[in-house]
Amino acid sequence: MKLCIKLCIMLLGLLALSGCSGLQSVLDPKGPQAKRLAELIWIFSGISAVIWLAIIVVLLKAVLRRSPDRPDPLAIGAPTERRSIVAVAAATATTLVIVVVLTLLSYLSQRHLYAKQPSAVVVKITGHQWWWDVRYESDRPDHVVTTANELYIPAGEPITVRLAASDVIHSFWIPSLTGKQDLIPGQENELQFTADRLGTYRGQCAEFCGWQHARMGIIAVVLPKDQFSAWRTAQIRPAAAPEDAVGQKGAAIFQSKACVMCHTVRGSSAGSRVGPDLTHFGSRKSIASATLPMSRGNIAAWVLDPQGIKLGTNMPNVSLAGEEIDPLVSYLEGLR
């Protein structure tokens, strides 16, 4: 009996420790909304664990108890029947109380999570198969910033995220910062949260949306307010034209290929909105919606064979001669 209880406690401890920290964990909250959700998870988990242990104890007691022999197995004594009725009634009442308490806690938490306040930043995120279009809105059209798969946030400031989908249902989720919210075609949903701690956090599409659902990640970067302002100012600027011969050759290759049919590079003739905006592509931390870390080698691998990395992606394999690869990668890497 004691060994069983010890094993149960060890298993629960390992389960808790397995998700308590990291880039993508609901048990490592970095903002008030995430903290409220983490508290709710611990309360639900704790109560559920106590209930589970109580049931195990009762079952073990029933299995291990040696009942006295009865001449008539169908005969039930009045005291035994009364105890059974009281036990069932107590268990029913306890269950009802627990359900009501948990429902009330969930309701109060939702009131806190969905409370509105003035936002310092408003971002519209559109889900595609399988990447995120991130658009920082502004009253001034020349201050609207569009990027992809990365969300930069000023620390300590509430931000509003407006969510839409272009194809199927997706779900926006950055566990360390906020809860889940669906992106539904034809409907705009809204989520508001605050990030208290500086750092980089990973998010994920939490609704199965197709073949590469597992590789539809998003990175959230929480910066001090002045660094966020500097980042946004830099993002407003168009892409700088390459000054070196290799970069200039890469720009010419980019303009001559099918790249311009899908992507935007502000400051150049590429202005399509089918795929991610590449204006400051080289300054990002990852490629293909957090599938690969940003590096020269990964840029080359993605350009040469996107289907080999993310099968089913809408980016086709582009025909490139051997001598065109290095200049094109240099140009993309230089988009900062």
What does this structure look like?
The chain has 336 residues and is an alpha+beta fold. It has three domains: 2-113, no CATH class; 121-236, Cupredoxins -  blue copper proteins (Immunoglobulin-like), CATH 2.60.40.420; 245-333, Cupredoxins -  blue copper proteins (Immunoglobulin-like), CATH 2.60.40.420. It is 40% helix and 18% strand. The strands form three sheets. It has a five-stranded mixed sheet with strand order 3-2-1-5-8. Strands 4-10-9-6-7 form a five-stranded mixed sheet. Helix 6 (296-304) crosses helix 8 (322-333). The longest helix has 36 residues, at 78-113.
Layout of SSEs?
Blueprint: H1 2-17, H2 32-64, H3 78-113, E1 121-128, E2 131-136, E3 145-148, E4 150-154, E5 158-165, E6 170-173, E7 181-183, E8 189-194, E9 199-205, E10 217-223, H4 225-236, H5 245-256, E11 286-287, E12 292-293, H6 296-304, H7 306-309, H8 322-333
Parallel strand pairs: 1-5, 4-10
Antiparallel strand pairs: 1-2, 2-3, 5-8, 6-7, 6-9, 9-10, 11-12
